[in-house]
Design brief:
The chain is mostly helical. It has 2 domains: 181 residues, Ankyrin repeat-containing domain (Serine Threonine Protein Phosphatase 5, Tetratricopeptide repeat, Alpha Horseshoe), CATH 1.25.40; 207 residues. It contains 18 helices and no strands. Keywords: Membrane, Transmembrane, Transmembrane helix. It comes from Brassica oleracea var. oleracea. InterPro entries: Ankyrin_rpt (IPR002110), Ankyrin_rpt-contain_sf (IPR036770), PGG_dom (IPR026961).
């Protein structure tokens, strides 16, 4: 330790057998020395020794959950290191039957949002799910079934379900248990990368192209302008939404401050209604509303890749509903049957446009996410979407409730 403190570069040197001081300390169970090493230089957790095995791989192999946890916090990037056999630390833990070490690694990946590492394949094309099937580790498979691509195939063209075969010498109850696991886990089908690229663009991909955004995050080759372009689009969309929202609340000419003698008459007015004549008012509100919804549409697409995007999505939806209520409140009284028809058409069309924009965008986003998840390839090559497929039904019910409440408020309640 004293020598390492004086010259840290010695700790990264390998001996003739291909091991560093860190590897040797782990092999001889010198835990205190190992903790001292990472306290001085945390990057030693990812130092590669013989076979490109890092100390994190070694700790995953022996199953020391406490030391493994310390390594992950000391050097988070070490979870992405691969051995010469293209194995991650998760591969190593599962292959050696270290269930607690696997649970620590799984919990870490979920907390740092790097679950796609679970779909990485070794030199034989096996994911962690394949490895668990090979050793009939059903507990690991149950934990992974909602996170990994269940139908991914290895280089032999086999899925984990093909590999998971009950041992004929086992008891019937064990065989039934394994068959039950196979039935429960075997849902959905995967596509090859060639099949994915040969298909037509999805609705979300077409929208990304329309906005000049990339649908693939080609690792190491992403244009540096992509993030700047996204930020610029978001700023412009927010400015347009702000300007149109403010214009809707403060239209040209302002509002009437008092009721006319006969406010329900076509030539009368109520306090809070626009002073513009009906023809100019409907033109202003329609164009201002279209600009407002277009900017919200762009904002919704852009925020769907951000953390807590569901909350932002709900906020945008609430803002659009509030705007529609404001339009109906400030709309001048119609004069004549034609103007009454135009008013009712606008009152019905604007909420329908809002609902269609919110629902269709959400469904397109969810379907695109599910389609990408079925591709038997590394998820890191795709743009980082966050799925919410189980919320489709709730969103649909919520839209119906919103439409019903809005209809009652606009047409049934007394003015």
């Amino acid at each position: 330790m004293e020598l390492m403190t004086l010259k840290q570069s010695l700790a990264s040197k390998l001996n003739v057998a291909g091991y560093s001081q860190m590897h040797l300390a782990l092999q001889n169970n010198h835990s205190r020395m190992v903790r001292g090493f990472i306290a001085i230089d945390s990057s030693l957790v990812s130092i590669k020794g013989r076979g490109r095995v890092t100390p994190l791989h070694h700790v995953a192999q022996i199953g020391d959950a406490e030391l493994l946890s310390e390594f992950l916090f000391a050097c988070p990037s070490s979870i992405e290191e691969l051995t010469v056999k293209c194995e991650t630390a998760v591969h190593v833990a599962v292959k050696n039957g270290k269930f607690m070490a696997f649970k620590v690694l799984l919990g870490w990946l979920k907390r740092v949002k790097k679950e796609e590492i679970l779909d990485w394949k070794d030199e034989d094309g096996n994911t962690v799910f394949h490895i668990a099937a090979m050793i009939n580790h059903t507990e690991v498979m149950k934990l992974l079934r909602k996170t990994v691509k269940v139908e991914a195939k290895n280089l032999d063209g086999k899925t984990a379900m093909n590999i998971l075969q009950p041992d004929q010498s086992r008891l019937p109850i064990t065989r039934r248990l394994i068959n039950y696991v196979k039935e429960r886990l075997g849902y959905g089908s995967t596509r090859t990368l060639a099949e994915y690229l040969s298909n037509n663009l999805s609705m979300m991909e077409k929208r990304n192209n329309l906005l000049g955004l990339s649908n693939l995050s080609m690792t190491g080759k992403t244009s540096p302008n992509t993030s700047e372009r996204r930020d610029a689009l978001l700023v412009v969309a927010i400015l347009i939404a702000t300007a149109t929202y403010q214009a809707g609340l403060s239209p040209p000419g302002g509002f009437w401050q008092e009721n006319s003698s006969n406010p329900n008459d076509g030539n009368g007015h109520k306090a809070g209604q626009m002073t513009m004549v009906f023809k100019n008012a409907i033109m202003f509100i329609v164009l201002n509303g279209l600009a407002f919804l277009s900017s919200l549409f762009v904002i919704i697409i852009l925020v769907m890749e951000l953390p807590m995007w569901k909350l932002l999505y709900g906020s945008v939806a609430a803002l659009s509903v509030a705007m529609s209520a404001a339009y109906i409140t400030i709309f001048p009284n119609p004069n004549g049957e034609l103007e009454k028809i135009q008013t009712r058409l606008f009152i019905m069309a604007f909420p329908v446009m809002i609902g269609a924009m919110l629902y269709n965008t959400f469904i397109a986003f969810t379907n695109d996410k599910e389609s990408r998840h079925k591709v038997d390839f590394q998820a890191s090559y795709f743009s980082s979407y966050h799925t919410a497929s189980r919320d489709n039904y709730l969103l649909f019910i919520g839209g119906l409730v919103y439409a019903g409440c809005f209809w009652i408020w606009a047409f049934e309640l007394p003015k």
